[in-house]
């Protein structure tokens, strides 16, 4: 591989959920990150790193060689769109991340140097579905934990930011990767909903008891379970049971309590 001194394009982006500056250089054959940035990645990704192929040779334009320590696949986000790609970890790389020609060609990255902009060109639906199968490897189940400490008064509702115990690929607005949310405990009650993995996740908690509830940071709150194909088909045809969303949020501050077991007094109190 050679790295030439072409005029680069530097854009903000993310690698495995970590924000950084991406140097987009079509003169670089491969996509690289340095060791310092690699060590900042979540353990979930770092543990997947492997040794590079023995015949791999990374050269600069002056033919000097760079040592490659690891190889791994990571999600890369450019202009709010994410693709999974193989990345090479170079300890002494002078940039945190260099986007090479391998990613540019494979994922059809369009570069507008005049406007300092780059984006992934959209593809046909069938091609996108195949690409998802190849690049998105989220698990079928996740546990979401509280990202902050809060106190919920009796018969009150509170919005809380949550995060997964282990990282997942961001698949916002991807109907092929939808999950059902279910409360771990009866109190607090979490509004059941269908969600997709995203960078910032907020759930609505309801204290349906007569006592104050304290939620601690990193406390497990809900499970995320991937919907199977039958459930997805039912949703697409509008035939999925409304019981799946017992407490769907109707507005930012209002709950639909029709399908809950509350009596009329409790419903009026929480509203």
From TrEMBL:
Domain of life: Eukaryota
Classification via Gene3D superfamilies: Acid Proteases
Gene Ontology biological process: proteolysis
GO molecular function annotations of the record: aspartic-type endopeptidase activity
InterPro entries: Aspartic_peptidase_AS, Peptidase_aspartic_dom_sf
Name of the protein this chain belongs to: Peptidase A2 domain-containing protein
UniProt source species: Rotaria magnacalcarata
Taxonomic lineage of the native organism: Eukaryota, Metazoa, Spiralia, Gnathifera, Rotifera
């Amino acid at each position: 591989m050679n790295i030439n001194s072409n005029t680069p394009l530097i854009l903000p982006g993310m690698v495995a959920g970590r924000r950084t500056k991406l140097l987009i250089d079509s003169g670089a054959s491969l996509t690289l990150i340095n060791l310092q940035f690699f060590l900042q990645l979540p353990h979930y990704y770092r543990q997947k790193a492997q040794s590079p192929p023995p015949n791999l040779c990374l050269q600069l334009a002056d033919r000097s060689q760079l040592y490659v320590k690891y190889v791994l696949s990571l999600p890369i986000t450019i202009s709010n769109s994410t693709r999974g790609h193989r990345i090479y970890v170079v300890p002494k790389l002078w940039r945190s991340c260099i986007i090479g020609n391998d990613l540019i060609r494979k994922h059809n990255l369009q570069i507008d140097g005049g406007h300092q902009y780059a984006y992934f060109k959209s593809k046909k639906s069938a091609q996108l579905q195949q690409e998802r199968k190849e690049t998105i490897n989220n698990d079928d189940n996740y546990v979401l934990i509280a990202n902050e400490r809060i106190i919920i008064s009796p018969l009150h509702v509170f919005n809380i930011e949550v995060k997964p115990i282990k990282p997942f690929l961001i698949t916002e607005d991807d109907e092929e990767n939808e999950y059902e949310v279910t409360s771990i405990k009866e109190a607090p009650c979490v509004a059941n909903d269908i969600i997709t993995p995203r960078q910032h996740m907020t759930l609505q908690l309801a204290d349906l008891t007569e006592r104050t509830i304290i939620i601690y940071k990193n406390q497990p709150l809900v499970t995320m379970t991937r919907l199977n194909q039958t459930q997805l088909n039912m949703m697409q045809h509008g035939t999925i049971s409304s019981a799946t969303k017992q407490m769907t949020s109707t507005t930012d501050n209002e709950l639909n309590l029709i399908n809950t077991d509350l009596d009329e007094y409790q419903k009026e109190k929480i509203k």
